[in-house]
Amino acid sequence: MKQLAIISGKGGTGKTSVAAGLVTLAATPSCPVVAADCDVDAANLALLLAGDDGEAKPFHAGRRARVDEDGCDGCGACEQFCRFDAIELDGTARIDPLRCEGCGVCELVCPTEAIRFVSNQAGWTMQRNTAAGPLVHARLGVAQDNSGKLVAAVREQARQVATERGIEVVIIDGPPGLGCPVHATLTGCDRALVVTEPTPSGRHDLERALDLVAQFRMKAALLINKHDLAPAEADRIGRLAHRRDVPLLGRIPFDPRVPKALARGHLPLELDSFGGPLASAWGAIQQLWEP
Predict the structure, then answer these.
(1) Number of domains in the chain
(2) Confidence (pTM)
């Protein structure tokens, strides 16, 4: 099984559009691919890969406190020791689930043992059947902070689907940035494709992304999106890739027709400005995978 993680270091580079394009180009009727959307905080790959979702499966991570009102005598010990201000007294203790961090102090100090902890539902995972193959994606619940664990769950489900169906390629749309969700995205992948833009912030975050990929002892490749908006900056990025021995797989020009098509939920691979560079990039990725 070959797993390609597409990351960006920062948001707004066009990573998801590239991921959707590569998924569509890589798939054939006889050889589908598995797509995984690991940007669980704001998943949107499903907007470009049409299909029907199956039943949403709850994802649990961490735990939250619950109060037995019949057993609570309103002594206030839990409120006194809660450092997250998640408990208020109104005759009995009331716990704000958005503030509760599940630390367990309230359970320890409650003299009547009226507080217990239950598993916390942090989000949902879903599987969609698309023309290119299965898409595994997820939705993180409001005010939940377990996105790294949810990313790992999406990755595991994508691997299981690929194994069960005998699919050899998994393409992962990673989250922006460089934090825990990106670490969970990169773990176990064969190669990372970094999508960047020709801006000083794009170049800065690209360097950090390449450092992160190197920490995982993976090989990176690079794709510059909207390169013609700042040719000099794009050339600097190209020289950076050369110095770090990172293959530059292509440069995608800016075409105003592309964002207009994407806003309608259409992936404009028929445009030479968009589909052409992506097709060349996919061909280069396949060559990089060859022994």
Answers:
(1) 2
(2) 0.88
